[in-house]
Amino acid sequence: MQSVGDVLKNYFGEINAHVGEQKNITCDSHGERVATVIASFGKKRIYSSCSACVELEKQKELDKEARQRQAIVQKKLNAAGIPKFYAQKNFDAFDDSFNTEARNAKKSFQAYAQFINVDTCGFLVGYGATGTGKTHLAIAVAHSVITRYTVAYMMASDIIRAIRETWSRNSTKTENQVLYELADVDLLIIDEVGVQFGTESEQNHLFEVINKRILDLKTTIILTNLVLDSGDGRNLRTFLGERTYDRLKEVATTVRFNWGSYRGTNKFTQPQGEMR
Ligand SMILES: Nc1ncnc2c1ncn2[C@@H]1O[C@H](COP(=O)(O)OP(=O)(O)OP(=O)(O)O)[C@@H](O)[C@H]1O
Ligand SMILES: [Mg+2]
Ligand SMILES: [Zn+2]
Question: Staple partner for 143: which of 90, 99, 244, 250, CB 3.0–4.6 Å?
């Protein structure tokens, strides 16, 4: 007895025997082109659109996929608390052509991004003057890992506020819950450390978070305008307090941003009014 496949084959000839064959056609949009057989049975052939239309369709599909991927990334960045202003600030957007230190800083942050969630990764402390790209590079790390890891971006003041808000009677979270959340996220970026007063209670809040993350070997980036421990008066050591700073010394890689502000270097090509 013949199988169904054989019956069809005898009747129609080999199915898809002509796939790949081409013929010349005239496309309304593209003129003289070729079309390709995408299915055949017997004398019947199904042709693709013209080669240029097929390319366009493919490109549209790729663009759509890229847009969808991009939308997912943006959503996650948003959920991580990354300000819209920095939504496009990835490593590609960081110009490191102007000096060796900037090149090294970028390399350090790129290398750090490779080690998120690796137990030996430790902390990264970026310090230096305003506008030098500390926040940009930390967020570039977030960009490169956001589809694989949980990320939170917070100012030091946000952390202090989040902890203090739990003391309110209306708070929906306990202090321990907030500390647990801050300890749990794979990558925590603590920005603007040193803008606060550095009171003992602020020091204690930051100690709780930083110490817990050190003990749990959690990847953490700390950014500050302060110098580390030199100079008289305010520095990171006096600001965070000895207990925290001493621990950081053991686990942190430091990156110094010792060049001028990048802000305003490519802006206002048209007169925009005075900025003061
Ligand atoms: N090397 C760079 N290439 C491209 N853009 C840069 C670079 N450095 C800084 N910028 C841009 O300049 C602006 C300031 O950078 P950023 O906010 O990262 O500075 P910062 O060091 O965090 O400053 P602050 O200490 O005031 O917070 C941002 O728009 C950032 O994208
Ligand atoms: Mg910053
Ligand atoms: Zn066409």
Answer: 90
What residue numbers bound the domain in which 69 lies?
1-79
Q: Looking at the CA of 265, which ligand is closest?
A: 1
Residue 274 lies in a domain: no
Contact by Cβ (8 Å): 72, 147: yes
**Residue 70 CA to ligand 2 centre (angstroms):** 24
Q: Amino acid letter at 107?
A: K
Main-chain dihedrals φ then ψ at residue 196, nearest 5 degrees: -80, -175
In a domain, 214, yes or no: yes
**How many angstroms does the Cα of residue 254 sit away from the middle of ligand 1?**
18
Domain boundary among 49, 79, 109: 79
Name the maximum alpha-carbon separation found in the chain: 98
Nearest CA to ligand 1 atom 29: 263
pLDDT tens for the chain, 276 residues long, are 778 878 767 776 778 889 999 999 999 999 999 999 999 988 889 999 999 999 999 999 999 999 999 899 999 999 999 999 999 999 999 999 999 999 999 999 999 999 998 888 899 999 999 999 999 999 999 999 999 999 999 999 999 999 999 999 999 999 999 999 999 999 999 999 999 888 999 999 999 999 999 999 999 999 999 999 987 778 999 999 999 999 999 999 999 999 999 987 655 444 444 544
Looking at the fold, whether 54 and 182 belong to one and the same domain comes out as no
Structural domain count, the chain: 2
Statement to judge: residues 85 and 201 lie in one domain:
yes
H-only helix segments in the chain: 4-12, 51-79, 100-113, 134-145, 156-165, 175-184, 200-215, 236-240, 242-251
C-alpha 192/C-alpha 263 separation (Å) is 17
